Amino acid sequence: MPIDKKFVDQLAIVTSKAALASSYLIGKKDKIAADKAAVDSMRSNLNNFDIQGQIVIGEGELDDAPMLYIGEKLGTNKGPEFDIAVDPLEGTNFVANNLPGALSVIAITKKNNLFKAPETYMEKISAKANEKNVVDLDFSVKKNIFNLSEYLNKKPENLTACILDRPRHNEIIKDLKELKVKVKLITDGDVSGALLVTDDKYNVDIFLGVGGGPEGVIAAAALDTFNCSFQGRFLFQTDQDKIRAKNMGINDLSKKYELNEIVSGDSIFCATGITSGDLVSGIKLDGNEFISETLVTHKSSGLKKVIKLKQKIR
């Protein structure tokens, strides 16, 4: 059974209200307060839903996150059972410093259909390709670029790769430059980075590198609807990371996950802009109302579009 389409509109309201709450802290140099505002709003609104929800990707484990922690139950305990992945404020630095690209994000699936990702790094790759063996985590940068070039019928110098601007990516960036690929560096926000491959208007053909594991799972929920490719492999740097992973049921610590192993069945994804970025515009205040833009996807109905909402500020 697909997820009822009514939840698309309901979840878009949840993320838009969380975005509004965080927007009051744009440029205030307090990323902790901005994140808390989004978390408080999102949790309060989700608890009003007639669902049996459980957080599988959230603000961290119970010891680290008093709200929206992994395993937290949400909703009225009536209605369908959902796995819920949240990033109430993706891009805390963007809000704190009034920079573009901050989002409030949520994804849901039916129970047990969303991968429970540990709080660790993930090697990931997404591209405008929905066939196997075009891009792959096990391929070299050169092979991925040449394969994608052939698949998209573009010369390598006409491809654009998006990657987080981190020292750990220096070798990848060097390889891309040698291939004359255009490089789009982002400072944060690798959910939105991975999603830039979904539409030609963003002019990004491939996203690659190492970022947050939970963010990879959330991005996969949207990429599934767009028929884009995604692969992820967790990187466990400490023994404690490995123990936590095993406790979450991950036995093969070097496994490469395909998109359908990360998210299965039907899904809904919503990402509302807090500050304007590539994907969506930020919150705009208009008297006692606010205007939001949200990228929404609903796999079973094929819905994938940006919706604009105008709501009363309560």
Mind telling me the C-alpha Rg?
Answer: 19 Å
Number of beta strands: 14
Give the rounded overall mean pLDDT: 94
Instruction: Calculate the terminal CA-CA distance, rounded to whole Å.
Output: 35 Å
The CATH fourth-level homologous superfamily of the largest domain: Fructose-1,6-Bisphosphatase, subunit A, domain 1
Shape: globular
Major sheet: size, sense and barrel closure? 8 strands, mixed
Return the string of H and E elements: HHEEEHEEHEHEHEHEHEHEEEE
Give the helix/strand class. alpha+beta
The CATH topology of the largest domain is what?
Answer: Fructose-1,6-Bisphosphatase, Chain A, domain 1
**Number of domain units:** 2
Strand content: 25-35%
Low-confidence stretches: none
CATH class categorisation of the largest domain:
Alpha Beta
Compact description:
This protein is an alpha+beta fold. It is built from nine helices and 14 strands.
Structural account:
It is globular and about 55 Å long. The strands form two sheets. Strands 1, 2, 3, 4, 11, 12, 13 and 14 form an eight-stranded mixed β-sheet that branches. The chain folds into two domains: 6-112 and 266-312, Fructose-1,6-Bisphosphatase, subunit A, domain 1 (Fructose-1,6-Bisphosphatase, Chain A, domain 1, 2-Layer Sandwich); 121-262, D-Maltodextrin-Binding Protein, domain 2, CATH 3.40.190.90. It has helices at residues 6-23, 31-46, 92-96, 141-152, 170-178, 190-195, 213-226, 239-247, 259-262; strands at residues 52-57, 73-74, 81-90, 103-110, 121-127, 160-164, 182-186, 206-212, 229-235, 257-258, 267-273, 284-286, 289-298, 303-312. The protein has 314 residues and is α+β, with helices and mostly antiparallel strands. 46% of the residues are buried. It contains nine helices and 14 strands. A hairpin with a 4-residue loop joins β13 and β14.
